[in-house]
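Let us work through a complete example step by step.
Step 1: write down the sequence.
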Amino acid sequence: WAAYWRDSLADSGIKGIEPIREASWYVATTSFSDSNQGALNRLLTIYWRHHKETPESLLARECSPLSGGLAMINDSNTPLLQPSCCGDLGNFMEWTTIMSDPPPKWTMLWIGHPWVHVKARGEWIDFSEESESNEPDRASFSAATDKVQRALLDAKTELTRFAILVEKALIQFGCSRDTDAIAQF
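Step 2: predict the structure and record it as tokens.
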């Protein structure tokens, strides 16, 4: 998968972008900046064409949200949790809601499917294994609640920065108005 992914990007003229882990197609938004705006523009143009988006559908906000979502990365830079099928950047709001008042019982956290459940345990948040069950068997890993909440604040800052880059791509794609609203997560 890793070779296929890199070859597909190279065939599209996109270079210098790495997945968050080997054989994943998720890329950290921090991989994009003003200096490689062209790579993001190309990637989003391909994405929007694949989803049959047009400047008109984007302006009408009838467009598909960007696939992906939040990933939890440990101190060794290994993903513990990454978005699943049908997850998108808008899932940030669900993370924020759940983590603002961590639930005492297992509660689904939508990351796509399969999904995870979370529950508070003192100063910790337990995360279940990914499944499509409504009753998790056990915790897969735990994270300090305050650390997750701080990470969400950092994620909001990063997503806001990334939205500015997406807005630039929207303008390149032919949208001339409401680009700031459309680019929001």
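Step 3: interpret the result. The beta strands are 72-73, 79-81, 107-109, 116-121, 124-128, 139-144.
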